[in-house]
Write a structure and sequence with these properties.
The complex is a heterodimer of chains A (273) and B (296). Chain A is mostly helical and 273 residues long. Chain A has helices at 2-34, 54-62, 65-96, 102-111, 117-131, 137-141, 148-159, 163-171, 176-187, 189-205, 208-213, 222-233, 237-257, 259-272. Chain A has one domain (63-272): MetI-like (MetI-like fold), CATH 1.10.3720. In chain B, helix 7 (157-182) packs antiparallel against helix 10 (212-227). The radius of gyration of chain B is 24 Å and the shape is globular. The chains are: A mainly alpha (273), B mainly alpha (296).
Chain lengths: 273, 296
C-alpha cells in the first residue's frame, strides 16, 4: 500500500515535470536564439557557441523598440487608471444607490458584452477617420477606457458589503462621492487589484485595434511593433527572438513576483464573473 | 427648492453614471448599430458616393467560397481547441492537486504563457516549428520521426495553430479547475468512500458534476475566444496570413482583410454581423445544454 502511494507520487511528479518542459522550452529556446549570431541559427546546436549581445543592440538601437515599449506603457497605464476609476464608480452606483431606471441601465451596459470587438472596429475606424483620431494616442486609448465586464465585476463586489457602513459614512457628514471614495473603494481592494492587472495585461497585449489605428512606426504599440518588425526581418530569427525576449521578459518578471496575487485575481474574476 | 433624500440620491446616481453611460452609448451601442447600417451600404470614403445596396451583402455571404472556408475553419478551431484545452487543463489540475511538492511553482509555470504577449508567443512558436531548422523537428528526429512541414502544410497548419493557442490558454484552464476542485468539500469524498466508491467512481459522481459551473464557464469563454481567433493566426504565418491556401483563415482575419486591406467596409460589416449572430447563437445553445442543477 505504501509503495503504491509512493509510485503514484512519483508518476504525478514525472508527468508534471514533462508538462513543465513543454511550457518552458519555447521561452528557453527564445532566449538561447536571441544570443546567437546569424550563422549559428542553422548550425543545429542547442547552446550558442559564440554568444553575443549584438541582436539586442540592433533591436534597441536600430528599431523604434523603446518608443513602442513606451507607447504600450502609456496606453496600458492610462486605460487601466480610467477603467479602475469609472468601472468602480459605475459598479458602486448600480449596487448601492437607489434610483429609477437602475436595472435598465445595468442591462444596457451588460448587453454590450455580447458584441464582439470585430463588429465594433469598423465603425470605430470610420469614426476615427472622420474625427482625425487615426494614428493618435486618443485613437489608441478610447475603445478601452471603460469596460462592461469591470462594471459588472465591481457591482458584484460592492453588492456584498453591509449597508450600515455606508449609512455611517453619511452620518459622519461625508458627501456621496466621499462615501464611495473613502468607504467603498478601500473595501474592494482585492477586486480592484484583479481588475487592474487584467486591464493592464489586456491592453499591453492588444493587437487588432492598434494594428488598425496606427499608421506610422513611431505610434506603434509593442505587439504591433514586434509583428511588423519581425515580418520585415525575414529569416533573421536571432533578431526576432531578441525582440520577443525584450517583450516577454518584463511581463514574466512581474508575473513571477506577483504570481500569487495574479492567479488569485483570475480565480476571483472567474468565479464572480 | 429642497430635494428629498431619495431625490438627492437619484441625482447623485445620475451624476456618477453620466460619463460611463455616455461612453457605452457612444462607443459601444451606437457603433454596433452603425455596423448593421454599414452592412447595407457599398462603402466609399466620400459620403456622397456611398451607395445603398440593401441586403446584397448578405446574399453575397451565401455565395462567397472564402467566407465558407473561414467559417468552417473557425468552427474547426473551436471544436479542436475548446475540448483540447479543457481536457489538458483538467488533467493538469488533477495532477497538481496530488503532487507531493512544488505545487505553487508548477502552477506558476503552467500559467506563465497566459500572461505573455500573444504576438511574441506566436513568433517564438513560428521559429520552433520552422520546417528546416526548427527545434521541434530536431526533437522529432531524435525520436526517429521524419521532419514535418507544420505551418507550411495546408493539412497540418490549422491543428498546429490550435496547439499554440491551447498552449497559451492552458494555464488559465488549470487555475480555474484547481479552484473548482478545491471548492468541493472533502466530506463528500469521505462519505462516498464509506459507501465503497473508489477512483473513477468518485470522479464520475462527485468531481465531474460539482465542477459543472467551472466547466460551463470554460466552454463559453473558450468558445467565444476561439470564434474571434486573430492574433496567433496572423503572426504564426505572417508572410501568408490565413495560408497556406486559406487553410488557417478565420472569420476575424477575413473581416480584417476585407475591411482594411481591400476597403470593402460594407461587406466586412455584414461578415461581422454574421460573427455576432454566431457567437450569440452558440453561447445560448451551450448555456441551455450544459447548465444543470446539481443535487447533493
Amino acid at each position: 500500500m505504501k509503495s503504491q502511494a509512493r509510485l503514484t507520487s512519483f508518476l504525478v511528479l514525472f508527468l508534471l515535470l514533462l508538462g513543465s518542459g513543454v511550457m518552458v522550452l519555447p521561452f528557453l529556446w527564445m532566449l538561447l536564439t536571441s544570443f546567437k549570431p546569424f550563422p549559428e541559427l542553422f548550425a543545429l546546436r542547442f547552446f550558442p557557441q559564440e554568444p553575443t549581445l549584438e541582436n539586442y543592440r540592433v533591436v534597441l538601437r536600430e528599431t523604434g523598440f523603446l518608443r513602442w515599449f513606451g507607447n504600450s506603457i502609456l496606453v496600458a497605464s492610462l486605460t487601466t487608471l480610467s477603467v479602475l476609476f469609472f468601472d468602480s464608480l459605475a459598479g458602486y452606483t448600480l449596487a448601492r444607490l437607489r434610483f429609477t431606471g437602475k436595472n435598465l441601465i445595468f442591462i444596457l451596459i451588460l448587453s454590450t458584452l455580447m458584441v464582439p470587438t470585430e463588429m465594433l472596429v469598423i465603425p470605430w475606424y470610420v469614426m476615427s477617420a472622420e474625427k482625425g483620431w487615426i494614428n493618435t494616442y486618443w485613437g489608441l486609448l478610447f475603445p478601452g477606457l471603460i469596460t462592461a465586464f469591470g462594471v459588472f465585476l465591481m457591482r458584484q463586489f460592492f453588492a456584498t458589503l453591509p449597508q450600515d457602513l455606508f449609512d455611517a459614512g453619511r452620518m459622519d457628514g461625508l458627501s456621496e462621492f466621499g462615501v464611495f471614495w473613502r468607504i467603498g473603494l478601500p473595501l474592494v481592494r482585492p477586486a480592484l487589484a484583479a481588475l487592474g492587472i487584467f486591464t493592464f495585461l489586456g491592453n499591453w497585449n492588444a493587437f487588432l485595434w492598434p494594428l488598425i489605428v496606427v499608421q506610422t512606426p513611431e505610434m506603434r504599440t509593442l505587439p504591433v511593433g514586434i509583428a511588423l518588425f519581425s515580418g520585415e526581418a525575414g529569416t533573421a530569427w536571432n533578431l526576432i527572438m531578441a525582440a520577443s525576449s525584450l517583450a516577454v521578459l518584463p511581463v514574466l518578471l512581474v508575473f513571477f513576483f506577483f504570481q500569487r496575487q495574479i492567479i488569485e485575481g483570475v480565480v476571483l474574476t472567474g468565479v464572480k464573473g | 427648492m429642497r430635494l428629498t433624500l431619495a431625490q438627492r440620491e437619484a441625482l447623485w446616481a445620475f451624476v456618477f453614471l453620466a460619463v460611463p453611460l455616455a461612453f457605452f452609448l457612444y462607443f459601444r451601442i451606437l457603433p454596433a448599430f452603425q455596423a448593421l447600417w454599414l452592412s447595407l451600404y457599398e462603402w466609399h470614403a466620400d459620403p456622397a458616393q456611398r451607395r445603398f445596396v440593401g441586403l446584397e451583402h448578405y446574399v453575397r455571404l451565401l455565395e462567397d467560397p472564402l467566407l465558407r472556408r473561414a467559417l468552417w475553419n473557425t468552427l474547426l478551431y473551436t471544436l479542436l481547441g475548446v475540448p483540447g484545452q479543457i481536457v489538458l487543463g483538467l488533467i493538469i489540475a488533477l495532477l497538481l492537486q496530488r503532487t507531493p511538492l512544488g505545487r505553487d511553482l508548477f502552477r506558476a509555470i503552467y500559467f506563465a504563457p497566459y500572461v505573455t504577449p500573444a504576438v511574441a508567443v506566436a513568433w517564438v512558436w513560428s521559429w520552433m516549428l520552422s520546417p528546416h531548422f526548427g527545434l521541434v523537428n530536431e526533437l522529432l528526429a531524435l525520436l526517429g520521426i521524419p521532419p514535418q512541414p507544420f505551418l507550411q502544410s495546408p493539412s497540418q497548419a490549422l491543428p498546429t495553430v490550435t496547439w499554440v493557442v491551447v498552449w497559451q490558454n492552458l494555464g488559465f484552464q488549470v487555475v480555474l479547475f484547481l479552484a473548482g476542485l478545491e471548492s468541493i468539500p472533502r466530506q463528500y469524498y469521505e462519505a462516498a468512500r464509506i459507501d465503497g466508491a473508489e477512483g473513477w467512481k468518485l470522479f464520475r459522481h462527485i468531481t465531474w458534476p460539482l465542477l459543472n459551473p467551472v466547466l460551463v464557464f470554460s466552454v463559453v469563454i473558450g468558445t467565444i475566444g476561439y470564434l474571434q481567433l486573430f492574433t496567433q493566426v496572423v503572426n504564426l504565418n505572417f508572410t501568408d496570413q490565413g495560408g497556406p491556401l486559406n487553410s488557417t483563415l478565420t472569420l476575424a482575419l477575413y473581416i480584417y482583410q476585407l475591411a482594411f486591406l481591400r476597403f470593402q467596409l460594407g461587406y466586412a460589416a455584414a461578415v461581422t454581423v454574421l460573427l455576432f449572430a454566431l457567437i450569440l447563437l452558440i453561447t445560448l445553445v451551450q448555456l441551455r445544454l450544459l447548465t444543470r442543477r446539481v443535487e447533493v
